[in-house]
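Title: Prediction job returns without error message
Component: structure pipeline
Severity: low
Priority: P3
Assignee: unassigned

Description:
Job completed but the reporter wants confirmation the result is attached to the right record. Sequence as submitted:
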Amino acid sequence: MANSGLRPGGPGIAAGPILAIETSCDDTCAAVVTPAGEILSNVISSQARFHERYGGVVPEVASRHHLELVNAVTDEALSGAGIALEDSSAIAATSGPGLIGALLIGLSTAKALAAAARLPFIPVDHLHGHVAANFLEPDPLGPPFLCLIASGGHTLLASVEDHAGYELLGATRDDAAGEALDKAARLMGMGYPGGAEIDRLAREGDPEAFAFPVGMRGADSLDFSFSGLKTALVYTVRDLGPAQTLVRRADLAASFQRAVVDSLMLKVEQALERTGARRVAIGGGVAANSELRSRVGAVCETRDLELKIPPRELCTDNAAMIASAARYLPTVPYPEFLGFDAFARAVA
């Protein structure tokens, strides 16, 4: 049973808004959300242009930029919400999983603000945040539902029975779906982040042009695997050579994307059969992928299921989702929270 992280429990929030900070990877984020789930502000400062030259996120670079940006982003979130720090009922922050150096910047900032204002603190699991993005106004989805989270760092299926946590049904055994798409884009000579570019280029290609493998197809598990798919692309690109790779890039993108989406949908449909869920939600950066959205929509329509896809700005990393999860977790009073630390890997 996977929970929302460190301190599972029922609602423990006072009547005022929650200030949340999220720095688990390469976006510096802060948001203010009311106890009812209304987003008063949601500020996201992307670092993508700093990491593009490296073809992926460099942890030390991400941490340094978080350090430079976190105070300004937090000030902007408070200003946008029209409140002062002291008007918050609690301060929340992502405590993991993610890049440990990046997490420590946001976590330390949030604890310092909470200590200075003598406000309670709420540590939030990043993955619970993605699930809790579905609880936000103006169109909240309440439990129970099946949730697919697919991003650059995580891919998992969760059974969400209450607001405070979730049961982990399956997770990636190696690369995440978004990570696989970014690596594929780099192999084909595209920039970073590559998921959106592959999605765009795939519309011009033939998804049947290359037969890429679908990981865990014959397995009884609801886990995912994308490392074999990535390796198959490496060999395909090697055999084609640089010139033909460029000529066939649209077909490669379409075929690779099809295999990623096939992998995700295979496990979603297996999970629906096992759980009997009547509601489905997706989240994470890969939830912006047009083929995935179309395929999930088609399955839900065929099965007469309710589907929830949060707006794109709530699918990628953001602090509003962290505040949303925090609404259903106990507060930790000063000075007890000063000893809380970040964690890099998901808690099983």
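Comment from assignee: result matches the submitted record. Residues 249-275 form the longest helix (27 residues).
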